[in-house]
Amino acid sequence: MMAGKIVRIAELEIDPAQLDAYRALLAEEIEASVEREPGVLMLHAVAERERPEQIRILEVYADRDAYEAHLLTPHFLKYKTGTAGMVRSLRLVDVDPVMMRGK
After folding, report:
1. How is domain 6-94 classified at the CATH fold level?
2. What's the Rg (C-alpha) of the chain?
3. What is the enclosing helix (H) or strand (E) of 87?
4. What ranges do the domains of the chain cover?
5. In angstroms, rounded to a whole number, what is the distance separating the alpha carbons of residues 93 and 103?
6. pTM as predicted
7. Chain segment 70-101, per-residue pLDDT in tens
8. Are 74 and 82 in contact (CB under 8 A)?
9. 16: helix, strand or coil
């Protein structure tokens, strides 16, 4: 089921003073990506409860082409440009699914 798919976790640290603005831009970007891009299968963003500036995003793309196309979309570029001064650190971790299931 996951063969060929790109699965990764983005680990971000956001400037706490800009957290609300960051979350608004992120929500807009995720909504547009999932709605408009067939190759974006899942984008789930969460924040650590005790450290809300620590954001984690689980990303699943249909394949490498879908991921590469995503990076060029107007909504992703708006997010990337708009949040550039808010993101203190970004680490992209490629992962292999062990078990992923939803209801």
Report:
1. Alpha-Beta Plaits (3.30.70)
2. 14
3. strand 87-94
4. 6-94
5. 25
6. 0.93
7. 999 999 999 999 999 999 999 999 999 999 88
8. no
9. helix
